[in-house]
Amino acid sequence: MEDRLFAFGPFILDVESRRLFRDGQIIPLAPKAFDTLLVLVENRGRLMEKSELLRLIWPDTFVEEINLTVHVSALRKAIGESRDEQQYIETIPKRGYRFIAPVSKSTSESNGDAESNGSAQGDAFEAGNEAAASLPPASVSSAISSRWKSVTWSLGIGAGLVIAVGALIYFLIAGRETPASAGRSIAVLPFKMLGADDEQYLSVGLADAVITKLSNLDQITVRPTFAVLKYEDLARDPLEAGRELGVDTLLSGVVQKSGSSIRVTVQLVRINDGASLWADKFEENFNDIFEVQDAISQRVARSLIPQISGREREALARNSTQNSEAYQHYLRGVYCVNKGTPESYRKGIEYFERALSLDPDFAAAQAWIADTYTTMGFSGLMPPEEAMPSARAALTKALQIDGSNADALTAEAFIRMHYDHDWEGADRGFARALESSPNSLAARRWRAWGLLLMDRAEESRAEMKRAYEIDPATPSSNLTWGLYLTYTRQYDQSIEHHRNLIEMEPQLAMARFQLAITYSLTGLHEEAIAEHQRALKISGARIDFLAYAYAAAGKKTEARAIFARLNERAKQHYVSPYTLARIHAALGEKDPAFEMLERALRERDQKIFWLKIDPTFDALRRDARFADIMRKMNLPA
Question: What's this model's pTM, rounded to 2 decimal places?
Answer without folding.
Answer: 0.64
